[in-house]
Amino acid sequence: MAVRGALGGPRVLLRRLREVMAEPVSAQERLDKIVVMIAANMVAEVCSVYVLRVDASLELYATEGLSKDAVHMTVLKPGEGLVGLVASEAEPLNLPDAQSHPAFSYKPETGEEIYHSFLGVPVLRAGIMLGVLVVQNRAHRTYSEEEIEALQTTAMVLAEMIASGELSALARPGAEPAVRRPVHAQGVALADGIGLGRVVLYEPRVMVRNLIAEDVQKELKRLDEAVDTLRASIDVMLEDENVQRGGEHRDVLEAYRMFAHDRGWLHKLREAVMTGLTAEAGVERVQSDTRARMQRQVDPYLRERLHDLDDLANRLLRELIGPDQLPAKNALPENAVLVARNMSPAALLDYDRSRLRGLVLEEGTATSHVVIVAKALGIATVGQVENAASLADPNDPIIVDGETGEMHLRPLPGLESAYADKVRLRARKQAQYAELRDQPAVTKDGQRVNLLMNAGLLVDLPHVAQTGADGIGLFRTELQFMVAATLPRTSEQLRLYRSVLDAAASKPVTFRTLDIGGDKVLPYMRSLEEENPALGWRAIRLALDRPALLRIQIRGLLHAAAGRELRLMFPMVAVTDEFDRSKELVEQELTHLRRHGHRLPETLHIGAMVEVPALLFALDEILNRADFLSVGSNDLVQFMFAADRGNARVSNRFDPLSEPVLRALKAVVEAGKKHKKPVTLCGELASRPLEAMTLLALGFRTLSLSPAAIGPVKAMVLGLDLAAAEKMIEPILNGGGAKEPVRVLLAEFAAKHGVPV
Ligand code: PEP
Ligand code: MG
């Protein structure tokens, strides 16, 4: 393709750049040569390279045409001038009359006032901004599309040079190129702990090293062939019977198919290759733009689609480069910190736990399943870290702070040692909690509290002994189903339930029957398209409509508990009839087992979870039927505030430590007392010491928490004067008209009474 105004076109330029890149000259000399070449090739009077520094300003590193004295002297503040604008927008800027643009900023030392036209393109690598490449001419002219494309291609070569670290030698301390800059990101703390280690990307980026084509026609052919193979592989995936069943996975594949046939995308890829890039570099060039757009896109739907396009480009790159050049999946460093956009619990379990120190997710909320598994495994986890997977490079040093929700990528040495101290301090604290392990949880005024733990996987079981939990208050049976590739067989279910009862020894275990649907999707089971899955066909509703599934599970539980105590509860009970029908299924299974001469559980307790607000107004009725109640505060709170627990925008908007929730919980406690039936709470609420203190003040005496919370909550119990706490909470429940938010009052109480929360 002929490029107007360019001498020899971009292909010639790229070839010459390759030669310069290989020359044994200093970094500055290389840069100087590059700008001369670009200026000549583009018939531009000026070509300048600005490099983004760690302090977010842009420094002139080389120029042909502007005053040489300005090199390393001219520094633009973030967003300053046209160059700053290109960097902040991550898009080319093409102006025939630069000086009339409102963002134009005059730098007298450069002598650029005589140049009117301006073309600036971002220097991007994997969508990350590294600098700005500019050409300028005296004449008022608009650069052509081809010229913009050519300059962007050239910028890729510069990006490689910057990313290689070669320019660091030219920088003053504190003003190094931003490429390896430390990144501090505030996300959301999801699983407690601190992880210091090295980045392992869950979906490794394919890094293209071979940028410049030897033979463009050959590269175009390679690209076309790879696109054909990609399309065919997507068709094959879509024909897969499992995918045919529908669900989110299918939607993603449909999006892939759409993009893989998108003429605009393919045209861009071909165009990039035609400027002289290899097929893979062409894909990366276009992908880099996609990533840059993705990082600035705030609309979640569009972001999601750009992610799909990015994934597709990755597939295409793999097609082109072949699997050999990808990093080995199993070569985990000793101290791996996984960085992912999102991942399934099964994928997390694939990694060697003993080498995992932390997990960083771009998505992920406290109740998402990968987080539940991460918690069970005791992996420090931070979520909602924007662009984490794009910012991190494999093997980068990283710190995950699961206490504060922070991620520090490539931290400065001072920070690393501060965190090493923090880790030591935590270890000391953990040792103190471990000392409490065999001590019963008794308040200062002599009230015994039962601290049970939540579990759901085999990996949880050692925690019973390690934490000294009084039992398992919530065993989420659906987790086994969620992390499996296919529906667990009856024998597998039975084996797990037996192991759970064995691990708990004589301590009580409460199994919750399958709680699937809603956000708990089984990849191998048909899921319905529902407008509001959280309010949809899920948990006990689904189980009652598909009784075979529930009956098999109940049978497994009854078998496993032969001769022992069995405690069962049903999730999401909204009306008493659901409880009655579920209990009836248990009766039928008991009859069946009895008839066939099987040994039955010694005792059987059947309870209901209180997680649907309607049940709050039918407490007498449900307590007339159930042997016990357990409040699922995660769901109860989401439904009370009508705020999706999995949606980060709203999930933390309302404080459960507020009058309406506390009154609802108090009503459950009172009803339990009236009916002389045990009432417990097993949502995440119980896992935080201040919240747990509040629950005790409301009258709960049994809480089920995540294993890691047992130590801190027990320490709180041991330091609590419960009678004083009960007295303090009374006026709040009675609407005392306090000015302060409830949380503040509770925290003040804890501080005043020296309760460790
Ligand atoms: C709850 O809703 O509080 C609960 C314990 O159940 P899950 O988190 O599994 O929905
Ligand atoms: Mg629930």
Short note summarizing the structure:
The protein contains 29 helices and 22 strands. It has 757 residues and is α/β, with parallel strands linked by helices.
| Whole-number mean pLDDT | 90
Care to count the β-strands? 22
Oligomeric state of shown chains = single chain
Unreliable segments of 5+ consecutive residues:
1-5
- If helices are DSSP runs of H or I spanning 4 or more residues, what is the number of helices? 29
Radius of gyration: 31 Å
Strand content: 15-25%
Distance between the termini: 69 Å
Strand order of the largest sheet: 7-14-13-9-10-11-12-8
- Helix/strand/pairing category: alpha/beta
Reported for the largest beta sheet, the result is: 8 strands, mixed
Ligands, deduplicated: phosphoenolpyruvate, magnesium ion
**Residues in helix, %:** 40-55%
Shape: elongated
Provide keyphrases for this structure.
757 residues; alpha/beta; eight-stranded mixed beta sheet; eight-stranded parallel beta sheet; 46% helix; 16% strand; elongated; disordered N terminus; binds phosphoenolpyruvate; binds magnesium ion
List the topology elements.
Blueprint: H1 9-22, H2 27-41, E1 46-52, E2 58-64, E3 75-76, H3 81-89, E4 93-95, E5 117-125, E6 128-137, H4 145-163, E7 183-186, E8 188-191, E9 194-201, H5 216-239, H6 241-244, H7 248-260, H8 263-274, H9 279-296, H10 300-321, E10 336-340, H11 345-349, E11 356-361, H12 369-377, E12 380-383, H13 388-391, E13 397-401, E14 406-409, H14 413-436, E15 450-455, H15 462-467, E16 472-476, H16 478-483, H17 490-504, E17 509-512, H18 539-545, H19 547-560, E18 565-570, H20 576-595, E19 603-610, H21 613-616, H22 619-625, E20 628-631, H23 633-641, H24 648-651, H25 659-675, E21 679-681, H26 689-698, E22 702-705, H27 707-718, H28 722-733, H29 742-752
Parallel strand pairs: 9-10, 10-11, 11-12, 15-16, 15-22, 16-17, 17-18, 18-19, 19-20, 20-21
Antiparallel strand pairs: 1-2, 1-6, 2-3, 4-5, 5-6, 7-14, 8-12, 9-13, 13-14
Helix pairs in contact: 1-2, 1-4, 5-7, 5-8, 5-10, 7-10, 8-9, 9-10, 14-27, 17-19, 18-19, 19-20, 22-25, 26-27, 26-28
